Amino acid sequence: MIALAVGVALLGSLFFALGAAFQQHEAAGSAEPRLRVLLRRPLWLAGGAAGVVGAALHIFALSIGPLTLVQPMGMASLLFALPIAAALHGRSPRREELAAAFLVCIGLMGLALLVPRTAQTPQLTESGAVTMLAGTALAAAACFGIAQRSAGAARTALLAVAAGVMYGATATITHVLVEGPGADLWLLAAVPVPAVAALMLLQRAYATPARSHASGARDPRGELGSGHFAVAFATLQVTDPLTAVTWGALLLDEPLPSHATAAVVAALLAGAGTVALARTTPLTRQTP
Fold this sequence. Notes:
It is a single chain. The protein is mainly alpha-helical and 288 residues long. It has one domain. The protein is built from twelve helices and two strands; from the N terminus they run H-H-H-H-H-H-H-H-H-H-E-H-H-E. It has a two-stranded antiparallel sheet. The chain is globular, with a radius of gyration of 19 Å.
């Protein structure tokens, strides 16, 4: 059953990767990466469906296998996503990209293993939920505002951070709804707010051009920059769980990693991998 759980978790990671790569491909190819536009694109919708399948497989894996093995497998999606996204844009991933992605995955796996598990029932008060949503919105708005004055990988990372904190808040509320019996129904109504905001911000991160082509000029290789997909996806993977762990500690009385030094090292590894990804050649698409 353990081997089956690991296999299912890896398959779920593959579907997560497919979903992210499909949606980035469509967002990067859209002149207007708004949800109302992307919802009319079959490949983008297929990406959303792949993400749902990935989530279902991950939940199934958790039901038949230990969390300490299943959860780290979910962090492998970046290693799957890079080759898929590169193939969609007509090239192969470079060694330095894969090495940086591996560093991010190692750091995230370490963080996933170091966060202690608790058997207590999570409870989120109304004031706590309002505080979380307000704090999350302020952090996302600050990142979005700075992103508007940035370009390239920096803009991509800032938008992905904004999406990540929103997804982290969504995960916290979902955790309370699933694990906390008798949770207030108004929390269920609150879930779509950060979730939809995160989705919109992530599409903007995916669509951020790697280079400025305002004049319509081509780069020397005859290609158009289509974005730092690896930066967006890696930043999201780092920001989402860190946000959820932080809110869990602040509002749900959940424990922080007991081995602080190891946790800091793991976080630094993930951050260093993300920075390294920002320095690699961005995805490109052939000029029509």
